[in-house]
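Late entry, zinc ion complex.
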Amino acid sequence: MNLLYLNGPVQNGCFTLADRPGKAVGIRAAEALNTLLGAGPVPHLWNTVTLAGDLRHRDAHDRDTVGRQEREERAITAKYAPAPAPAGGVLTDTAPAVTALALEMTERLLREGVLAVVPTAVRLCTRCGHMTGSVAHTCRACGHHGSRPHTRRLLVWDRPPGTPVLERDDFHAHRSRPPHHLLTIAHNVPEQLILSRTRDHGISLAPLGLDGLVLDPRAGLHIAVLAAAARSSAERPVMTVTENAAANVAAYGAPFRRHNGTRLRYALHGHIPYDDTAALQRLCEVHRVSPALKELFLTWFLPLCSLHLRAGITPAQLPALLKFWRRVHLARPDTPGSDVPAELRRSVAAGDMRWVMDLRTLSRVIPEHPSTQGFAKEPEGAS
Ligand SMILES: [Zn+2]
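Prediction complete; structure with ligand written out below:
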């Protein structure tokens, strides 16, 4: 089995996973599926090439003593605290393995003529010099309204007309469920995409003669997934991602989804209404759901559910899901730890998630404990 689920790199913003568990849905879903496949553990992937990160670093009082890379790493560690770091470690989109793979792939794509470095007309912020893109708009780095035209050599992807950036086969999903909305969005992507950006932090394109430019992070996060897959010799990485995120990044990742026989596909998942914790707590009391069972509901069942209910789980659906979960738990066989049924493994490998609503199947594979590390508010054993 060389299929492996990996989370779409999460933006390394200002939050902890205990406070914003919704950010960990892709991580948790990937972990649950890998466990069913008998694969993993895999690293948790983080996206550190962000404009917000540039601004945070520029404004930090300790920027002279703490480097940007270190700041990103500290922020990631703090996300899991006080729980331990994940068993499979973490991997950022600027890790040496990702950078090396990115340059290797970009050089190959340039040789093959898929990508090109060409003089391109863009707009630069007249105050800070940030490249705002091909059309004039307010600078996202400093908020300034003025920009000026500028032509510079950039890494671009000029697609031949009619070349799709996303096809049905790019999704790891049951045949009956193609994401029509995303496929429609993909038809409206401009024929030229700029793949180099002005950022303080990222995969430097200086080795390609593009000083001061980094690879567009939307491309880079695909490469992070490929690098993590290569580490596990997995040729079929599947990246868990929300439909919104996929709509934002898929076009930029299109030239970077295949490399040396490896092909990345997407598994879409919906939003989970974790923020409604008070209502959830009430529900658990009404249904006499134990804290352990509640934890499994939140960290295992709902993430799996979100791959099936791709449009998102609504707060109104939670009572029914919790009732179902309780019935699933009551149907648990007496001898836990039995093997994952081969049929279920085949479904998971095929991206078919309908089994998650099948009481009998689900009851046979409930983990003894939440296997996911790094999400508890308190470390195990703490009072
Ligand atoms: Zn600016």
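The pocket of zinc ion is lined by residues 125, 127-128, 130, 139, 141-142, 144 (CB under 6 Å). Will revisit in the morning.
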